[in-house]
Amino acid sequence: MKRFIALAALALWVGDAVAQSGPSGQLTGSLIDSVTSRPVPFATIAVRDAAALIAGTTTDSSGAFTVAVAPGSYTLTLSSVGYRTKTQATTITQSAVTLGPIRLRSESQTLGEVTVAAQKALIEEKGDRLVYNAEKDVSNVGGSAADVLRKVPSLSLDLEGNIQMRGNSNIRVLINGKPSAMMARNLADALRQMPADNIKSVEVITSPGAKYDAEGAAGVINIITKKALQGFNGSVMASAGTLNRSLNTKFAGKTKKLGLSLSANGYQFRNIREAQTLRTTLADGVPLNYLSQNSSADNTGTGGYGEFSLDYDPDSTSRINFSANAWGGYYPNNSSVINRLTDPAGNVLQQFRNDIRLSNPYGNSQFDLGYTKTFHRSKDARPGVAPAEFSLLTQYSRMPDNYFYDADRYTLDETAQLIFRQHSTNYSRNKEYTLQADYTYPFQIRTARDTTRFKLETGLKAIRRDIGSEYRVEQSVDGRLPFVVDPGQSNDFDYNQQIYAGYGALRIEARSKWTLNLGARLERTLIAGNFMTTQTNLSSQYTNLIPSLMVSKGIGSHTVKASYTQRIQRPQLWFLNPWVNASDPRNLQTGNPYLNPELNHAVELGHSVSTKAGLSINSAFYWRMTNNAIEYVRTVDEAGVSLSKPQNIARRTAYGLNLNLSGQASKVWTLNGGMDLRYVDLRSPGLNQSNTGLVGNFNISSTYKLPHDYTFQANGNFNSGWISLQGRGSSFYWYGFALKRELMAKKASLTLGVNNPFNRGVAQTLTQSAPTFAAETRSFFVSRSARIAFEWRFGQMSSGGKQSKKISNDDAGSR
């Protein structure tokens, strides 16, 4: 508080002094990073004479500044967080004086071979995206990507790892700005399988611009993994715990022209759950039968991931990059379910125990090849303006994604006789080919009163997806006879999707802190499908013009912005696959190859402010309306058998408030928190159903640096539940603690973490209703866990070099 009062008094005194002196001179200039030549935004400029402070200002987002002072000789003091303070003498005349780009050197401290730069905030607002710096959160060590995303503002995860952004689950998740087939197949499973130790930061983009693929109705999540830096360096990490364990290593070597990096990891995760379901089958509101189910499961998944990348710079303006990565693993989902079906009088109609052995051996390989050309600036180009750039990118990915299950049915009496057996195979595949070209041209227009910076972006893109599924069901009707193929549950399915897109976008940024982003993207989609066994075909084609607009204004330390964009959500492979999962004969699940895409409209009004005391506040009011919204819809027949299938339900609307705070209570204590509160309205006239309500999620985390290189962190998350067309989930919470110790001159670290230490698990209730049924499911997930992790870092850890561009389908463009 004393610091704030002193700064306020100083600002008033400076303003008063300037008003009295009546300055007629003007000083303009810009600050850039001495290594990267990138602008240094929001730096402090102080103008002093021999006796006192005369005037002051800050640079805008492009690193430029303007200050009015009386003629004379002065000393400039230039400072910014993460840079060394610089002083420079200058003389102001009656006319304007312009200083060329002034270079600031980064503030760093070298410890042996390790360079430690200025600390980033845990949560950062970067105009068009919110960034959560996961590597600064010690409680993530030894966990999974699901543990990381649980703490990211605007995101919420249920107890099974299903993710939503502001209440919408249609999200495009990228890895380093490019699509991952693993994230498309089953997002909840993929997040559990990705080690948190590989994640550097997470970007949340709620209003993507025109250069972004239109895919992802709710928005885009970009997971940035840790990259090896310039020089020779690497790390080894091992963690052991009750629910998670992993071993991973990274290595990199980089010279002036050539860069090579390798990474590999293996992991295991355990999932323990119990559930009880009571469902009533209805006909015109009258109960027909009652189903009771009790299930339990304890499964451990195992897998691995590896990546290789090679960058080559033939000269200072060109780069050729190649990368290859592969996932693979085995995820069982075995369970035992007790089933009892009774009539309204209480008579048992059917009862049995169903033992399910479901396995999902999966894999994915992806190859990227790209070329980037940076054009030299002309001699008369303005200082600080980036050069034009062209990139040509290609990508190929292949993902076999197979599901197999065996279901054995037993009587519930003391004999436990085997009475039915079923075996199902589903071989599915997804091949994707992409070609993309982008061109960026920055320029600026300067007048006597202002300098306006422009960035023109344009590009073309083509994607082809070949999807297939071959599924067979064999069964033994009495448990003893040989297996016989059931033709009604067997088919071969081919699906082809082609997307052709072009976009144009313009960013205008004035020194007066006005920023305007506007653009449009045109996408043409062609779809063809074929059920080869039954000789049934499907086809469709559609064209979408996707506009986007964002305008923002900086007012001192405040920024206000407004945006509008459209998004399209094409059905994912998992939604399209017509294979029927009948491992639980009372609850069938299948895909729908006849789905139409969603079209989402999004409006957002935002405000952000950062104080000199280190407090950052970001808030946004938003409205989202989705036509042809896709949701899983359940129907129950008169025999009490349910079928869950994705359908276009008509409309989903949400009105929300998102608020995030990040601050430093002291030099050693930081606090972060956030909330997302929204009113959800789902309506389906065709199904004669609707559901509305208020839901939200809240999170808080605190980090405290202790003496002797210890760091302690606590975090908590509360979720009020969620709303779907047919149901509502109850609230739940999550909390954890972590203690980290730096070792070996900060070349190694040891971290102990616990989640929900005072509760064995978390319970949740899901209620659902429709004209044909009413159901309640009570679930319990074991969440109490402990883990210990050790990491050793070796080699030179210094930054440098250019970033390679790669294709990013359905995402934020190339990065």
What's the helical proportion of residues? under 10%
- CATH architecture descriptor name of the largest domain: Beta Barrel
The beta-strand count equals 48
Q: What structural class should be given to the helix and strand makeup? A: mainly beta
Using the coordinates shown, work out and report the CATH topology of the largest domain: Maltoporin, Chain A
What low-confidence regions span 5 or more consecutive residues with pLDDT below 50? 1-22, 108-119, 797-801, 811-815
Number of domains: 2
| CATH domain class of the largest domain | Mainly Beta
Shape: globular
The total of helices stands at 5
* Largest sheet, strands/sense/barrel: 28 strands, antiparallel
Task: Report the average pLDDT across residues.
Answer: 81
Residue share in β-strands: over 45%
Whole-number radius of gyration? 29 Å
Report, as a whole number of angstroms, the end-to-end distance.
41 Å
CATH homologous superfamily placement of the largest domain: TonB-dependent receptor, beta-barrel domain
